[in-house]
Design goal:
The complex is a heterodimer of chains A (295) and B (274).
Chain A: H1 6-37, H2 44-61, H3 66-89, H4 97-119, E1 135-137, E2 140-142, H5 144-166, H6 168-178, H7 180-185, H8 190-215, H9 225-236, H10 241-261, H11 267-281
Antiparallel strand pairs in A: 1-2
Helix pairs in contact in A: 1-5, 1-8, 1-9, 1-10, 2-3, 2-4, 2-8, 2-9, 3-8, 5-6, 5-8, 6-8, 9-10, 9-11, 10-11
Chain B: E1 9-18, E2 21-31, E3 36-40, H1 47-55, E4 62-67, E5 70-71, H2 77-83, E6 85-87, H3 100-106, H4 116-121, H5 125-144, H6 160-173, E7 178-182, H7 190-207, E8 210-214, H8 218-224, E9 227-232, E10 235-240, H9 242-246, H10 249-255, H11 261-269
Parallel strand pairs in B: 3-8, 3-9, 6-7, 7-8
Antiparallel strand pairs in B: 1-2, 1-4, 4-5, 9-10
Helix pairs in contact in B: 3-6
The structure holds adenosine-5'-triphosphate and magnesium ion.
Chain lengths: 295, 274
Protein backbone atom coordinates (compact mmCIF):
# COMPACT_ATOMS: atom_id res chain seq x y z
CA UNK A 1 0.00 0.00 0.00
CA UNK A 2 2.49 2.59 -1.06
CA UNK A 3 0.09 4.55 -3.09
CA UNK A 4 -3.26 4.26 -1.39
CA UNK A 5 -5.77 6.38 -3.26
CA UNK A 6 -7.27 8.48 -0.49
CA UNK A 7 -9.33 10.52 -2.89
CA UNK A 8 -11.00 7.39 -4.16
CA UNK A 9 -11.79 6.29 -0.63
CA UNK A 10 -13.25 9.73 0.04
CA UNK A 11 -15.36 9.66 -3.11
CA UNK A 12 -16.57 6.16 -2.44
CA UNK A 13 -17.43 7.10 1.12
CA UNK A 14 -19.38 10.15 -0.02
CA UNK A 15 -21.32 8.04 -2.47
CA UNK A 16 -21.94 5.51 0.32
CA UNK A 17 -23.25 8.19 2.65
CA UNK A 18 -25.37 9.49 -0.22
CA UNK A 19 -27.14 6.21 -0.83
CA UNK A 20 -27.18 5.71 2.95
CA UNK A 21 -29.45 8.75 3.13
CA UNK A 22 -31.94 6.92 0.93
CA UNK A 23 -31.70 3.81 3.07
CA UNK A 24 -32.32 5.99 6.08
CA UNK A 25 -35.40 7.51 4.46
CA UNK A 26 -36.83 4.12 3.53
CA UNK A 27 -35.87 2.84 6.97
CA UNK A 28 -37.80 5.72 8.50
CA UNK A 29 -40.90 4.63 6.58
CA UNK A 30 -40.49 1.13 7.96
CA UNK A 31 -39.88 2.28 11.53
CA UNK A 32 -42.92 4.59 11.54
CA UNK A 33 -45.14 1.66 10.70
CA UNK A 34 -43.42 -0.73 13.07
CA UNK A 35 -43.37 1.69 15.98
CA UNK A 36 -47.06 2.40 15.84
CA UNK A 37 -48.46 -0.96 14.80
CA UNK A 38 -45.72 -3.50 15.64
CA UNK A 39 -46.09 -4.88 12.12
CA UNK A 40 -42.90 -6.04 10.41
CA UNK A 41 -43.63 -4.81 6.91
CA UNK A 42 -41.76 -7.01 4.44
CA UNK A 43 -43.41 -5.17 1.56
CA UNK A 44 -41.51 -1.96 2.27
CA UNK A 45 -39.43 -2.33 -0.90
CA UNK A 46 -42.56 -2.88 -2.98
CA UNK A 47 -44.17 0.19 -1.45
CA UNK A 48 -41.16 2.18 -2.64
CA UNK A 49 -41.65 0.64 -6.06
CA UNK A 50 -45.34 1.61 -6.16
CA UNK A 51 -44.47 5.23 -5.46
CA UNK A 52 -41.96 5.23 -8.30
CA UNK A 53 -44.46 3.68 -10.72
CA UNK A 54 -47.18 6.14 -9.72
CA UNK A 55 -44.73 8.91 -10.46
CA UNK A 56 -43.88 7.29 -13.79
CA UNK A 57 -47.57 7.17 -14.69
CA UNK A 58 -48.07 10.87 -13.94
CA UNK A 59 -44.82 12.35 -15.17
CA UNK A 60 -44.05 10.10 -18.17
CA UNK A 61 -47.27 8.54 -19.37
CA UNK A 62 -49.53 11.52 -18.71
CA UNK A 63 -46.74 14.04 -19.20
CA UNK A 64 -47.65 16.09 -16.14
CA UNK A 65 -45.14 18.52 -14.71
CA UNK A 66 -42.61 16.89 -12.37
CA UNK A 67 -43.81 18.62 -9.20
CA UNK A 68 -47.42 17.66 -9.87
CA UNK A 69 -46.35 14.11 -10.62
CA UNK A 70 -44.51 13.90 -7.32
CA UNK A 71 -47.42 15.33 -5.34
CA UNK A 72 -49.99 13.05 -6.94
CA UNK A 73 -47.74 9.99 -6.64
CA UNK A 74 -47.16 10.69 -2.97
CA UNK A 75 -50.87 11.23 -2.31
CA UNK A 76 -51.73 8.11 -4.29
CA UNK A 77 -49.25 6.12 -2.25
CA UNK A 78 -50.77 7.49 0.93
CA UNK A 79 -54.18 6.30 -0.24
CA UNK A 80 -52.68 2.91 -1.03
CA UNK A 81 -51.21 2.80 2.48
CA UNK A 82 -54.62 3.51 3.98
CA UNK A 83 -56.16 0.80 1.82
CA UNK A 84 -53.54 -1.76 2.83
CA UNK A 85 -54.05 -0.98 6.50
CA UNK A 86 -57.82 -1.17 6.23
CA UNK A 87 -58.15 -4.27 4.06
CA UNK A 88 -55.16 -6.42 5.01
CA UNK A 89 -53.75 -5.35 8.34
CA UNK A 90 -56.72 -4.22 10.44
CA UNK A 91 -58.60 -7.51 10.10
CA UNK A 92 -55.49 -9.23 11.48
CA UNK A 93 -55.59 -7.22 14.71
CA UNK A 94 -54.88 -9.53 17.62
CA UNK A 95 -53.52 -12.34 15.43
CA UNK A 96 -49.99 -13.55 15.96
CA UNK A 97 -47.21 -11.29 14.66
CA UNK A 98 -46.05 -14.12 12.40
CA UNK A 99 -49.41 -14.21 10.59
CA UNK A 100 -49.31 -10.48 9.99
CA UNK A 101 -45.73 -10.82 8.79
CA UNK A 102 -46.92 -13.46 6.29
CA UNK A 103 -49.63 -11.08 5.11
CA UNK A 104 -47.03 -8.49 4.24
CA UNK A 105 -45.09 -11.11 2.26
CA UNK A 106 -48.28 -11.78 0.35
CA UNK A 107 -48.74 -8.06 -0.11
CA UNK A 108 -45.32 -7.72 -1.73
CA UNK A 109 -46.24 -10.41 -4.28
CA UNK A 110 -49.55 -8.70 -4.98
CA UNK A 111 -47.83 -5.37 -5.60
CA UNK A 112 -45.20 -6.91 -7.89
CA UNK A 113 -47.97 -8.74 -9.76
CA UNK A 114 -50.00 -5.55 -10.13
CA UNK A 115 -47.00 -3.68 -11.52
CA UNK A 116 -46.24 -6.43 -14.03
CA UNK A 117 -49.87 -6.48 -15.12
CA UNK A 118 -50.11 -2.74 -15.62
CA UNK A 119 -46.62 -1.75 -16.73
CA UNK A 120 -45.02 -5.02 -17.80
CA UNK A 121 -41.76 -6.54 -16.61
CA UNK A 122 -39.39 -4.39 -18.68
CA UNK A 123 -37.08 -1.81 -17.25
CA UNK A 124 -38.17 1.76 -17.74
CA UNK A 125 -36.62 5.14 -17.14
CA UNK A 126 -38.08 7.92 -15.09
CA UNK A 127 -37.85 11.41 -16.54
CA UNK A 128 -34.67 13.21 -15.49
CA UNK A 129 -35.52 15.97 -13.12
CA UNK A 130 -32.42 16.39 -11.00
CA UNK A 131 -29.57 18.68 -12.12
CA UNK A 132 -26.95 16.62 -13.93
CA UNK A 133 -23.80 18.70 -13.42
CA UNK A 134 -21.26 16.79 -11.37
CA UNK A 135 -21.00 17.98 -7.80
CA UNK A 136 -17.59 18.67 -6.30
CA UNK A 137 -16.92 18.42 -2.60
CA UNK A 138 -13.34 19.53 -2.20
CA UNK A 139 -11.61 17.50 -4.89
CA UNK A 140 -14.05 14.67 -4.70
CA UNK A 141 -16.67 14.17 -7.32
CA UNK A 142 -20.11 12.97 -6.27
CA UNK A 143 -22.66 11.68 -8.75
CA UNK A 144 -25.28 14.46 -8.94
CA UNK A 145 -28.28 12.19 -8.53
CA UNK A 146 -26.88 10.69 -5.38
CA UNK A 147 -26.01 14.12 -4.06
CA UNK A 148 -29.44 15.64 -4.65
CA UNK A 149 -31.17 12.45 -3.59
CA UNK A 150 -29.29 12.69 -0.32
CA UNK A 151 -30.32 16.33 0.13
CA UNK A 152 -33.98 15.54 -0.44
CA UNK A 153 -33.80 12.52 1.85
CA UNK A 154 -32.22 14.39 4.76
CA UNK A 155 -34.57 17.33 4.30
CA UNK A 156 -37.58 15.06 4.33
CA UNK A 157 -36.33 13.12 7.34
CA UNK A 158 -35.92 16.41 9.21
CA UNK A 159 -39.44 17.51 8.28
CA UNK A 160 -40.97 14.21 9.39
CA UNK A 161 -39.09 14.28 12.68
CA UNK A 162 -40.07 17.86 13.47
CA UNK A 163 -43.70 17.31 12.54
CA UNK A 164 -43.94 14.19 14.67
CA UNK A 165 -42.25 15.95 17.54
CA UNK A 166 -44.74 18.77 17.81
CA UNK A 167 -47.91 17.80 16.01
CA UNK A 168 -50.63 16.17 18.06
CA UNK A 169 -50.78 13.20 15.73
CA UNK A 170 -47.11 12.62 16.41
CA UNK A 171 -47.68 12.72 20.14
CA UNK A 172 -50.54 10.26 19.75
CA UNK A 173 -48.26 8.03 17.71
CA UNK A 174 -45.53 8.05 20.32
CA UNK A 175 -48.03 7.32 23.07
CA UNK A 176 -49.48 4.44 21.06
CA UNK A 177 -46.01 3.11 20.34
CA UNK A 178 -45.21 3.24 24.03
CA UNK A 179 -48.35 1.60 25.39
CA UNK A 180 -51.37 0.83 23.24
CA UNK A 181 -53.78 0.04 26.08
CA UNK A 182 -52.91 3.17 28.01
CA UNK A 183 -53.18 5.32 24.89
CA UNK A 184 -56.57 3.85 24.05
CA UNK A 185 -57.88 4.40 27.56
CA UNK A 186 -56.83 8.03 27.44
CA UNK A 187 -58.84 9.07 24.46
CA UNK A 188 -56.28 8.39 21.75
CA UNK A 189 -57.96 6.85 18.74
CA UNK A 190 -55.55 3.95 18.32
CA UNK A 191 -57.04 2.55 15.08
CA UNK A 192 -56.70 6.00 13.54
CA UNK A 193 -53.08 6.16 14.66
CA UNK A 194 -52.53 2.83 12.87
CA UNK A 195 -53.97 4.24 9.65
CA UNK A 196 -51.94 7.38 10.04
CA UNK A 197 -48.72 5.40 10.41
CA UNK A 198 -49.44 3.39 7.26
CA UNK A 199 -50.39 6.48 5.28
CA UNK A 200 -47.33 8.48 6.31
CA UNK A 201 -45.08 5.42 5.97
CA UNK A 202 -46.34 4.79 2.43
CA UNK A 203 -45.88 8.46 1.50
CA UNK A 204 -42.32 8.56 2.80
CA UNK A 205 -41.57 5.27 1.03
CA UNK A 206 -42.98 6.72 -2.21
CA UNK A 207 -40.55 9.63 -2.13
CA UNK A 208 -37.67 7.26 -1.45
CA UNK A 209 -38.92 5.16 -4.37
CA UNK A 210 -39.07 8.09 -6.75
CA UNK A 211 -35.47 9.02 -5.92
CA UNK A 212 -34.19 5.44 -6.11
CA UNK A 213 -36.06 4.95 -9.38
CA UNK A 214 -34.53 8.02 -10.96
CA UNK A 215 -31.02 7.15 -9.79
CA UNK A 216 -31.20 3.70 -11.37
CA UNK A 217 -34.24 2.61 -13.30
CA UNK A 218 -37.72 1.32 -12.86
CA UNK A 219 -38.58 -2.37 -12.88
CA UNK A 220 -40.75 -4.80 -10.95
CA UNK A 221 -37.62 -6.13 -9.24
CA UNK A 222 -36.99 -2.77 -7.63
CA UNK A 223 -38.42 -4.19 -4.44
CA UNK A 224 -35.14 -5.97 -3.67
CA UNK A 225 -34.02 -2.56 -2.44
CA UNK A 226 -36.28 -3.50 0.45
CA UNK A 227 -33.86 -6.25 1.47
CA UNK A 228 -31.19 -3.69 2.20
CA UNK A 229 -33.78 -1.58 4.00
CA UNK A 230 -34.58 -4.54 6.23
CA UNK A 231 -30.90 -4.91 7.02
CA UNK A 232 -30.83 -1.21 7.85
CA UNK A 233 -33.70 -1.35 10.31
CA UNK A 234 -32.55 -4.57 11.93
CA UNK A 235 -29.08 -3.10 12.37
CA UNK A 236 -30.57 0.07 13.83
CA UNK A 237 -33.23 -1.61 15.94
CA UNK A 238 -36.71 -2.07 14.48
CA UNK A 239 -38.41 0.59 16.57
CA UNK A 240 -35.75 3.28 16.60
CA UNK A 241 -35.87 6.29 14.31
CA UNK A 242 -32.30 7.22 15.23
CA UNK A 243 -31.36 3.61 14.52
CA UNK A 244 -32.81 3.82 11.00
CA UNK A 245 -30.77 6.94 10.29
CA UNK A 246 -27.48 5.58 11.61
CA UNK A 247 -28.17 2.11 10.19
CA UNK A 248 -28.87 3.66 6.79
CA UNK A 249 -25.55 5.46 6.67
CA UNK A 250 -23.64 2.43 7.98
CA UNK A 251 -25.16 0.07 5.43
CA UNK A 252 -24.65 2.63 2.65
CA UNK A 253 -20.97 2.93 3.53
CA UNK A 254 -20.38 -0.80 3.87
CA UNK A 255 -22.03 -1.45 0.51
CA UNK A 256 -20.01 1.25 -1.21
CA UNK A 257 -16.69 0.14 0.29
CA UNK A 258 -17.19 -3.54 -0.38
CA UNK A 259 -18.47 -2.80 -3.88
CA UNK A 260 -15.31 -0.89 -4.70
CA UNK A 261 -12.64 -2.77 -2.83
CA UNK A 262 -13.96 -6.31 -2.92
CA UNK A 263 -16.11 -6.26 -6.01
CA UNK A 264 -19.83 -5.80 -6.62
CA UNK A 265 -20.67 -9.43 -5.95
CA UNK A 266 -19.55 -8.99 -2.31
CA UNK A 267 -21.98 -6.17 -1.51
CA UNK A 268 -24.76 -8.35 -0.17
CA UNK A 269 -22.31 -10.66 1.55
CA UNK A 270 -20.73 -7.80 3.45
CA UNK A 271 -24.00 -6.20 4.52
CA UNK A 272 -25.36 -9.49 5.77
CA UNK A 273 -22.10 -10.28 7.56
CA UNK A 274 -22.41 -6.89 9.22
CA UNK A 275 -25.97 -7.76 10.17
CA UNK A 276 -24.97 -11.05 11.77
CA UNK A 277 -22.08 -9.39 13.58
CA UNK A 278 -24.22 -6.65 15.05
CA UNK A 279 -26.97 -9.03 16.07
CA UNK A 280 -24.42 -11.15 17.90
CA UNK A 281 -23.22 -8.18 19.91
CA UNK A 282 -26.54 -6.38 20.23
CA UNK A 283 -29.53 -8.68 19.64
CA UNK A 284 -31.94 -5.74 19.48
CA UNK A 285 -29.93 -3.72 17.02
CA UNK A 286 -27.89 -0.64 17.79
CA UNK A 287 -30.71 1.44 19.26
CA UNK A 288 -33.61 -0.98 19.62
CA UNK A 289 -35.52 -1.53 22.84
CA UNK A 290 -35.80 -4.93 24.39
CA UNK A 291 -39.52 -5.36 24.04
CA UNK A 292 -39.50 -6.93 20.61
CA UNK A 293 -38.09 -10.24 21.72
CA UNK A 294 -41.14 -12.20 20.60
CA UNK A 295 -40.12 -11.62 16.99
CA UNK B 1 -74.64 4.16 50.80
CA UNK B 2 -76.70 1.91 48.59
CA UNK B 3 -77.39 2.73 44.97
CA UNK B 4 -79.01 6.13 44.73
CA UNK B 5 -81.99 6.99 42.58
CA UNK B 6 -79.72 8.18 39.78
CA UNK B 7 -76.58 6.05 39.50
CA UNK B 8 -73.65 7.63 37.67
CA UNK B 9 -72.73 4.27 36.19
CA UNK B 10 -75.12 1.46 35.57
CA UNK B 11 -74.10 -2.06 34.60
CA UNK B 12 -77.10 -3.85 33.20
CA UNK B 13 -77.12 -7.60 32.54
CA UNK B 14 -73.64 -7.67 31.02
CA UNK B 15 -72.53 -10.96 29.50
CA UNK B 16 -69.08 -11.30 27.99
CA UNK B 17 -67.94 -14.50 26.32
CA UNK B 18 -64.46 -15.41 25.08
CA UNK B 19 -65.19 -18.24 22.68
CA UNK B 20 -67.07 -20.67 24.88
CA UNK B 21 -65.94 -19.19 28.19
CA UNK B 22 -68.27 -16.73 29.84
CA UNK B 23 -66.02 -14.33 31.68
CA UNK B 24 -69.12 -12.36 32.74
CA UNK B 25 -72.63 -13.69 32.99
CA UNK B 26 -75.55 -11.34 33.45
CA UNK B 27 -73.67 -8.94 35.70
CA UNK B 28 -75.68 -6.00 36.99
CA UNK B 29 -74.77 -3.38 39.56
CA UNK B 30 -74.87 0.36 40.04
CA UNK B 31 -72.37 2.95 41.10
CA UNK B 32 -73.79 5.88 43.04
CA UNK B 33 -72.34 9.33 42.32
CA UNK B 34 -69.71 10.32 44.86
CA UNK B 35 -69.36 6.79 46.18
CA UNK B 36 -66.40 4.48 46.53
CA UNK B 37 -67.58 1.21 45.04
CA UNK B 38 -65.39 -1.88 45.13
CA UNK B 39 -65.55 -5.01 43.02
CA UNK B 40 -64.01 -8.02 44.74
CA UNK B 41 -63.81 -11.73 44.01
CA UNK B 42 -61.35 -14.60 43.75
CA UNK B 43 -58.74 -14.73 40.98
CA UNK B 44 -60.28 -15.15 37.57
CA UNK B 45 -63.72 -14.03 38.78
CA UNK B 46 -64.01 -11.54 35.95
CA UNK B 47 -63.17 -8.28 37.70
CA UNK B 48 -60.68 -7.03 35.13
CA UNK B 49 -62.98 -8.21 32.34
CA UNK B 50 -65.70 -6.06 33.92
CA UNK B 51 -63.36 -3.07 33.91
CA UNK B 52 -62.38 -3.69 30.32
CA UNK B 53 -66.03 -3.83 29.33
CA UNK B 54 -66.84 -0.60 31.14
CA UNK B 55 -63.92 1.29 29.63
CA UNK B 56 -64.69 -0.01 26.14
CA UNK B 57 -61.81 -2.42 25.57
CA UNK B 58 -64.22 -5.35 25.28
CA UNK B 59 -67.64 -5.34 23.64
CA UNK B 60 -70.10 -7.30 25.75
CA UNK B 61 -71.99 -10.17 24.13
CA UNK B 62 -75.16 -8.72 25.57
CA UNK B 63 -76.29 -6.16 28.11
CA UNK B 64 -75.89 -2.42 28.49
CA UNK B 65 -73.66 0.08 30.20
CA UNK B 66 -75.08 3.47 31.05
CA UNK B 67 -72.94 6.40 32.09
CA UNK B 68 -74.60 9.61 33.27
CA UNK B 69 -77.87 8.19 32.02
CA UNK B 70 -76.58 7.63 28.50
CA UNK B 71 -76.18 4.19 26.95
CA UNK B 72 -72.48 3.96 26.04
CA UNK B 73 -72.36 0.25 25.17
CA UNK B 74 -71.60 0.95 21.52
CA UNK B 75 -69.15 3.77 22.05
CA UNK B 76 -65.43 3.15 21.47
CA UNK B 77 -63.02 3.59 24.37
CA UNK B 78 -61.63 7.02 23.38
CA UNK B 79 -65.13 8.51 23.43
CA UNK B 80 -65.77 7.06 26.86
CA UNK B 81 -62.55 8.68 28.02
CA UNK B 82 -63.80 12.05 26.78
CA UNK B 83 -67.11 11.56 28.56
CA UNK B 84 -65.29 11.16 31.86
CA UNK B 85 -64.23 7.55 32.45
CA UNK B 86 -60.59 7.18 33.42
CA UNK B 87 -58.82 4.03 34.53
CA UNK B 88 -55.62 2.51 35.77
CA UNK B 89 -54.39 -0.95 34.88
CA UNK B 90 -53.73 -4.06 36.92
CA UNK B 91 -50.33 -4.34 35.25
CA UNK B 92 -49.16 -0.76 35.19
CA UNK B 93 -49.52 0.77 31.74
CA UNK B 94 -47.42 3.90 31.76
CA UNK B 95 -45.66 5.44 28.79
CA UNK B 96 -42.24 4.11 29.57
CA UNK B 97 -39.40 6.14 28.20
CA UNK B 98 -41.31 9.34 28.98
CA UNK B 99 -41.06 11.42 32.13
CA UNK B 100 -43.66 11.61 34.88
CA UNK B 101 -44.75 15.04 33.69
CA UNK B 102 -45.08 13.90 30.06
CA UNK B 103 -47.25 11.03 31.20
CA UNK B 104 -49.49 13.40 33.12
CA UNK B 105 -49.68 15.85 30.22
CA UNK B 106 -50.86 13.06 27.96
CA UNK B 107 -53.79 12.64 30.29
CA UNK B 108 -55.11 15.92 28.92
CA UNK B 109 -54.89 14.65 25.38
CA UNK B 110 -58.50 13.55 25.27
CA UNK B 111 -59.74 17.10 25.83
CA UNK B 112 -57.56 18.86 23.29
CA UNK B 113 -58.85 20.11 20.01
CA UNK B 114 -58.54 17.59 17.27
CA UNK B 115 -58.63 18.93 13.73
CA UNK B 116 -56.23 21.15 11.88
CA UNK B 117 -59.00 23.70 11.48
CA UNK B 118 -59.80 23.69 15.16
CA UNK B 119 -56.18 24.43 15.81
CA UNK B 120 -56.16 27.27 13.26
CA UNK B 121 -59.22 28.99 14.67
CA UNK B 122 -58.31 28.26 18.20
CA UNK B 123 -55.50 30.51 19.18
CA UNK B 124 -54.84 33.73 20.99
CA UNK B 125 -56.62 34.35 24.24
CA UNK B 126 -58.70 31.23 24.43
CA UNK B 127 -55.67 29.13 23.73
CA UNK B 128 -53.49 30.85 26.33
CA UNK B 129 -56.33 30.50 28.77
CA UNK B 130 -56.44 26.76 28.16
CA UNK B 131 -52.71 26.31 28.44
CA UNK B 132 -52.78 28.10 31.78
CA UNK B 133 -55.72 26.08 33.00
CA UNK B 134 -54.00 22.89 32.01
CA UNK B 135 -50.79 23.82 33.81
CA UNK B 136 -52.87 24.63 36.90
CA UNK B 137 -54.48 21.23 36.85
CA UNK B 138 -51.15 19.48 36.37
CA UNK B 139 -49.64 21.37 39.29
CA UNK B 140 -52.57 20.59 41.52
CA UNK B 141 -52.33 16.89 40.74
CA UNK B 142 -48.57 16.76 41.25
CA UNK B 143 -48.93 18.56 44.57
CA UNK B 144 -51.81 16.45 45.66
CA UNK B 145 -50.16 13.11 44.94
CA UNK B 146 -46.83 14.30 46.36
CA UNK B 147 -44.80 13.49 43.26
CA UNK B 148 -43.15 16.87 42.77
CA UNK B 149 -39.67 15.46 43.47
CA UNK B 150 -39.94 12.97 40.58
CA UNK B 151 -41.76 15.10 38.03
CA UNK B 152 -38.89 15.00 35.54
CA UNK B 153 -37.81 11.44 36.22
CA UNK B 154 -38.37 8.80 33.55
CA UNK B 155 -41.20 6.58 34.79
CA UNK B 156 -39.30 3.37 34.05
CA UNK B 157 -36.81 4.24 36.80
CA UNK B 158 -39.47 4.59 39.54
CA UNK B 159 -40.43 2.09 42.19
CA UNK B 160 -43.59 0.06 41.69
CA UNK B 161 -45.51 2.05 44.27
CA UNK B 162 -44.58 5.36 42.68
CA UNK B 163 -45.48 4.09 39.22
CA UNK B 164 -48.96 3.25 40.47
CA UNK B 165 -49.20 6.77 41.84
CA UNK B 166 -48.14 8.28 38.52
CA UNK B 167 -50.74 6.18 36.76
CA UNK B 168 -53.35 7.63 39.09
CA UNK B 169 -52.03 11.14 38.42
CA UNK B 170 -52.36 10.62 34.70
CA UNK B 171 -55.91 9.35 35.11
CA UNK B 172 -56.75 12.41 37.23
CA UNK B 173 -55.36 14.69 34.53
CA UNK B 174 -58.17 13.41 32.34
CA UNK B 175 -60.51 15.16 34.79
CA UNK B 176 -62.75 12.13 34.97
CA UNK B 177 -66.13 11.85 36.61
CA UNK B 178 -65.50 8.21 37.48
CA UNK B 179 -62.01 6.94 38.29
CA UNK B 180 -61.56 3.20 37.86
CA UNK B 181 -58.64 1.64 39.70
CA UNK B 182 -57.66 -1.98 39.02
CA UNK B 183 -55.85 -3.23 42.14
CA UNK B 184 -54.37 0.13 43.18
CA UNK B 185 -52.33 -1.28 46.09
CA UNK B 186 -51.33 -4.69 44.74
CA UNK B 187 -47.65 -5.32 45.40
CA UNK B 188 -47.30 -2.30 47.71
CA UNK B 189 -45.86 -2.32 51.19
CA UNK B 190 -47.86 -1.25 54.24
CA UNK B 191 -46.81 2.37 54.09
CA UNK B 192 -47.44 2.76 50.37
CA UNK B 193 -50.82 1.09 50.82
CA UNK B 194 -51.81 3.56 53.51
CA UNK B 195 -50.71 6.47 51.34
CA UNK B 196 -52.76 5.19 48.44
CA UNK B 197 -55.81 4.67 50.65
CA UNK B 198 -55.52 8.26 51.80
CA UNK B 199 -55.20 9.49 48.20
CA UNK B 200 -58.28 7.56 47.16
CA UNK B 201 -60.33 9.08 49.95
CA UNK B 202 -59.01 12.55 49.15
CA UNK B 203 -59.76 12.23 45.46
CA UNK B 204 -63.34 11.67 46.40
CA UNK B 205 -63.47 14.41 49.04
CA UNK B 206 -61.51 17.13 47.29
CA UNK B 207 -62.28 16.50 43.66
CA UNK B 208 -65.70 14.97 43.99
CA UNK B 209 -64.71 12.07 41.77
CA UNK B 210 -66.58 8.80 42.03
CA UNK B 211 -64.31 5.79 42.58
CA UNK B 212 -64.80 2.29 41.23
CA UNK B 213 -62.05 -0.08 42.23
CA UNK B 214 -61.00 -3.70 42.08
CA UNK B 215 -58.92 -4.75 45.05
CA UNK B 216 -57.77 -7.89 46.84
CA UNK B 217 -56.70 -6.10 50.01
CA UNK B 218 -59.82 -6.76 52.08
CA UNK B 219 -58.77 -4.44 54.86
CA UNK B 220 -58.65 -1.56 52.48
CA UNK B 221 -61.83 -2.52 50.66
CA UNK B 222 -63.83 -2.73 53.87
CA UNK B 223 -62.39 0.50 55.26
CA UNK B 224 -62.87 2.63 52.20
CA UNK B 225 -65.90 1.36 50.36
CA UNK B 226 -69.46 2.56 50.59
CA UNK B 227 -70.60 -0.31 48.44
CA UNK B 228 -69.09 -3.69 47.60
CA UNK B 229 -69.92 -5.96 44.67
CA UNK B 230 -68.71 -9.55 44.84
CA UNK B 231 -68.05 -11.48 41.64
CA UNK B 232 -67.46 -15.20 41.39
CA UNK B 233 -67.15 -17.13 38.13
CA UNK B 234 -68.44 -14.13 36.23
CA UNK B 235 -71.58 -13.69 38.31
CA UNK B 236 -72.55 -11.26 41.05
CA UNK B 237 -72.97 -13.28 44.23
CA UNK B 238 -73.36 -10.40 46.64
CA UNK B 239 -73.87 -6.66 46.47
CA UNK B 240 -74.25 -4.25 49.36
CA UNK B 241 -72.52 -2.43 52.20
CA UNK B 242 -69.19 -3.81 53.45
CA UNK B 243 -70.91 -5.07 56.59
CA UNK B 244 -73.61 -6.90 54.67
CA UNK B 245 -71.13 -8.47 52.27
CA UNK B 246 -68.80 -9.66 55.05
CA UNK B 247 -71.55 -11.62 56.71
CA UNK B 248 -72.79 -13.20 53.50
CA UNK B 249 -72.24 -16.98 53.66
CA UNK B 250 -71.96 -17.28 49.89
CA UNK B 251 -69.11 -14.80 49.82
CA UNK B 252 -67.26 -16.78 52.44
CA UNK B 253 -67.84 -19.95 50.46
CA UNK B 254 -66.50 -18.28 47.29
CA UNK B 255 -63.28 -17.47 49.06
CA UNK B 256 -63.03 -21.00 50.48
CA UNK B 257 -60.42 -23.28 49.11
CA UNK B 258 -57.87 -20.58 49.20
CA UNK B 259 -56.98 -21.10 52.87
CA UNK B 260 -58.12 -21.38 56.44
CA UNK B 261 -61.76 -20.48 57.00
CA UNK B 262 -61.22 -18.48 60.18
CA UNK B 263 -58.40 -16.55 58.52
CA UNK B 264 -60.75 -15.77 55.68
CA UNK B 265 -63.46 -14.59 58.00
CA UNK B 266 -61.00 -12.28 59.68
CA UNK B 267 -59.78 -11.10 56.31
CA UNK B 268 -63.27 -10.28 55.20
CA UNK B 269 -63.79 -8.41 58.44
CA UNK B 270 -60.77 -6.40 57.50
CA UNK B 271 -58.69 -7.35 60.52
CA UNK B 272 -55.79 -8.81 58.58
CA UNK B 273 -53.98 -7.34 55.65
CA UNK B 274 -53.76 -9.60 52.63
N1 LIG C 1 -58.73 -11.63 26.46
C1 LIG C 1 -59.18 -12.79 27.00
N2 LIG C 1 -59.34 -13.88 26.22
C2 LIG C 1 -59.79 -15.03 26.75
N3 LIG C 1 -60.12 -15.20 28.02
C3 LIG C 1 -59.98 -14.15 28.86
C4 LIG C 1 -59.50 -12.88 28.40
N4 LIG C 1 -59.47 -12.02 29.44
C5 LIG C 1 -59.90 -12.73 30.51
N5 LIG C 1 -60.22 -14.00 30.17
C6 LIG C 1 -60.74 -15.02 31.09
O1 LIG C 1 -61.83 -14.48 31.78
C7 LIG C 1 -61.82 -14.87 33.13
C8 LIG C 1 -61.82 -13.66 34.03
O2 LIG C 1 -60.57 -13.02 33.95
P1 LIG C 1 -60.29 -11.62 34.66
O3 LIG C 1 -58.93 -11.18 34.26
O4 LIG C 1 -61.41 -10.71 34.38
O5 LIG C 1 -60.28 -12.03 36.20
P2 LIG C 1 -59.97 -11.14 37.46
O6 LIG C 1 -61.15 -11.23 38.34
O7 LIG C 1 -59.53 -9.78 37.08
O8 LIG C 1 -58.77 -11.94 38.12
P3 LIG C 1 -57.51 -11.42 38.95
O9 LIG C 1 -57.96 -11.23 40.35
O10 LIG C 1 -56.53 -12.54 38.83
O11 LIG C 1 -57.04 -10.18 38.30
C9 LIG C 1 -60.60 -15.76 33.31
O12 LIG C 1 -61.03 -17.10 33.21
C10 LIG C 1 -59.72 -15.40 32.16
O13 LIG C 1 -58.95 -16.50 31.76
MG1 LIG D 1 -57.80 -8.69 37.30
Amino acid sequence: MIDFDWLLLFEVSLAGIGSGGLYALAGLAFVLIFKATKVVNLAIGEMLMMGAYFFFAMASTLGWPIWLGVVVAVLGSGALGALIERLLIRPMLGESPISVFMITIGLSSILVGAVELIWGADQMRLPDFMPSDPVLIGEAMVPPKIFYGFLVATGLIAVVLVVFRFWRGGIALRATASDQAAAYSMGINVPRVFSLAWVVGAMVAAIAGIIVGSISSLSPTMGVFGLSVLVVVIVGGLDSVAGALVGGIVVGLVEAWSGTYLGGQYKMLSTFSLLVLILMVRPYGLFGTHEIERL
Amino acid sequence: MSAAANPILEIDQITLAFGGVKALNGVSFEVAPGSITSVIGPNGAGKTSMFNTISGFYRPTSGHIRFLGEDITQRPAPQRAKLGLARSFQNIALFRGMTVLDNIKLGRHCHLHTGVFDALFYYGRARREEVRLRADIEERIIDFLEIDHIRNAPVAALSYGLQKRVEMARALAMQPKVLMLDEPVAGMNREETEDMARFILDVREEWGITILMVEHDMGMVMDLSDHVVVLNFGEVIADGTPAAVQGNPEVIRAYLGSGDVEELRRKLRGEVAT
